[in-house]
Amino acid sequence: xxxxxxxxxxxxxxxxxxxxxxxxxxxxxxxxxxxxxxxxxxxxxxxxxxxxxxxxxxxxxxxxxxxxxxxxxxxxxxxxxxxxxxxxxxxxxxxxxxxxxxxxxxxxxxxxxxxxxxxxxxxxxxxxxxxxxxxxxxxxxxxxxxxxxxxxxxxxxxxxxxxxxxxxxxxxxxxxxxxxxxxxxxxxxxxxxxxxxxxxxxxxxxxxxxxxxxxxxxxxxxxxxxxxxxxxxxxx
Amino acid sequence: xxxxxxxxxxxxxxxxxxxxxxxxxxxxxxxxxxxxxxxxxxxxxxxxxxxxxxxxxxxxxxxxxxxxxxxxxxxxxxxxxxxxxxxxxxxxxxxxxxxxxxxxxxxxxxxxxxxxxxxxxxxxxxxxxxxxxxxxxxxxxxxxxxxxxxxxxxxxxxxxxxxxxxxxxxxxxxxxxx
Lengths: 236, 178
Description:
Chain A: It comes from Bhargavaea cecembensis. By secondary structure, chain A is mainly α.
């Protein structure tokens, strides 16, 4: 279990090549799913096109539950990419983890806080950007004094809290899932008794991890859109 | 573990760039943006296009259906009116025919009755005529026989011409007195 992360230094930046690899794999999988399902598109959808359209409608539903589609439509691509990316990333670490010479190479990229925090910060920065862009600087700044002026410090803290919870919730859930799967895998390889004892909880936990991975992808996108709607809509 | 690194890096303060995976942050952003652009180009854009197209198609189909529904309702109303008209017309025709038939029947009856009356009259006239003729014939015969009888009685020839006039006069008188 005592895996360490690989580490590369390049141009003064620290890279974790395992993260780079898994990000690339995630992107490739997401892209292939989206690419293959949108070939030979017809007005009357069949097969994979149905699936992709369902995903798009699902994301559209998430956005619509938070804001007007006229303002929310521009975040559709962002939300779609986020949910597919995070879902696939969560699933990648489930079937196995590959470690070579005690260096962990294959895992969920979302089991790394750097990546989840990057996504969370990116989303929060985007909410501020669109808040300023769509409601103007004045309204954006006034938004911090609502509903009451003395709550401004809390509102500022909230922004950081939102960022932290958004990123760390995803990381924590996926990382914990991988740890437990790793422990059960360790138990299973310990001996015949261990294998028999581990087989049931391992299967249960894998199933639960699929559930958690799906839910977390949904929650991440949902909260992103909630934060976004707080910034871009004027009726709050 | 990554979390330890992260927390340590955040709290240590010095050499933060060495401990924090700055490269990963940039890589994540890069990969995510790249993925978003690729999806936009290859999946989201075309799919949105086709979904919009479908929405448009459905909207136009609904309009079309609404229009054709109204049209068919109009046509139905028209047909109904036409049918009603035709029915009235048919009824009028039947009524007319019945009337005409009645009239014709009455006409025929009238003609037949008149014809029958005429035939009866004709027959009566003919009977009267025949009777007259018969009486005349009988009278003539009677005259001849009378003359014959008188000849036999008198035993001599009387001029038939003279006596005939006389006898006929007598018979006439007898006929009148009777």
